[in-house]
Description:
It is a single chain. By secondary structure, the chain is of the alpha+beta class. The protein folds into three domains: 4-123, eRF1 domain 1 (Translation, Eukaryotic Peptide Chain Release Factor Subunit 1, Chain A, 2-Layer Sandwich), CATH 3.30.960.10; 128-268, eRF1 domain 2 (Nucleotidyltransferase, domain 5), CATH 3.30.420; 292-378, CATH 3.30.1330.30. 38% of the residues lie in helices and 21% in strands. It has helices at 4-7, 37-53, 58-72, 75-78, 116-123, 161-165, 190-220, 230-239, 259-290, 298-306, 345-355, and strands at residues 20-26, 84-90, 93-99, 106-110, 128-133, 138-143, 148-150, 223-227, 245-250, 294-295, 310-316, 322-325, 332-334, 343-344, 359-363, 374-378. A five-stranded mixed beta sheet has the order 7-6-5-8-9. The protein has a four-stranded antiparallel beta sheet with strand order 3-2-1-4, sandwiched between helices. Strands 10-16-11-15 form a four-stranded mixed beta sheet, with helices on both faces. β2 (84-90) and β3 form a beta hairpin. α2 (37-53) runs antiparallel to α3 (58-72). The relative contact order is 0.11. Mean pLDDT is 89; it is low at 174-183.
Amino acid sequence: MNSLAQDYPDILTGGHEPPCLSLYQPTHRHHPDNTQDPIRFRNLVKKMEESLRQKYPKREIRSLMQPFGVLAKDRAFWNHTADGLAVLSATGLFRVYRLQRPVVELVVVADSFHTKPLMRITQSADRYQVLALSRDRFKVFEGNRDALDEILPIEGVPQTAGELLGKDAGDREGARRAYGPAGNAAWHGTDVKQDAVDRDTEQFFRAVDQAVLQHCSQPSKMRLILVALPEHHHLFRSVSRNPFLMKEAIGVQPDALPLAALRERAWQLVLPYYLERLAGLVEAFGAAVANGRGADELDDIAKAAIAGRIATLLIEADRLIPGNIDVSSGRITSGDLSDPDVDDVLDDLGESVLRARGDVVIVPAERMPTRTGAAAIYRF
Length: 380
């Protein structure tokens, strides 16, 4: 399974030889609902083929469709789906992503990938990660308001203290009894052994912090919530160098909470930050418009995006505006998504801003400050 955190935006918004094929569909986690998912997938693939026939020869279409056919027959894959599915394909590239959000069923054949649903997942303000930590093992989860799933696995990183530190149980310092000079009771037994256990724990926590920072926090830039027994919080925070670690935490043994309860408690910690960030973005947009440094009309936004002038772009979630943007003038022309030369204008705007190193935030419709589907804050 491909990693969205690693691929987006550089790989998926980069230049690829057309046609670029994008398929999205809602999926189901459990039986019997998930039995319909491969059927719906095959129907979407047929729709994709119909779009390709408008412009491309049969031989090329057959090559492009081959990996989709393989995926359609992969029974193990369809038995372990999440809430949504994204499949992006072009010559020399085939990416499959299980998504934690349901997505609108959609097929797009165009000269670039349709990535706005992935923008919502990667750029949305409600994303977070959870570090479930005990004295001898850890897990990392990723979620939003609706779902929480374990990141499986963190590539190349063991999740137990013995494996991560390169020691088996007998070699770890706390596993050995410690004795001082003969006759000196103060150096004998429990106290020294406990000191050794504490040193093992500190060494393990340092290794966990480094692994999570490198493999999870830095690539995703998401808030990190610590879930651990209260007595472990101070030690972990004292050794942590992770700037994404939240000051709020959950003080329980990680295995004591069902996943649904863990998600709910984590979301309640993230919610105030989520609402604060959205309110701040809306306020910043209002101030920018008042000072002539913002826009809500798509034509103006497109011209500014082409010129690299947009610092922050807000895009309305789940809204589609079929059309094309002229890359030289920024002029927008409307179209039909069934046409292989037509994409979603909002999607193209977001990709253009990301390529210019601007920020893109996908915002629920009820919190958008405009009715056009987009709101831009200019750099200058």
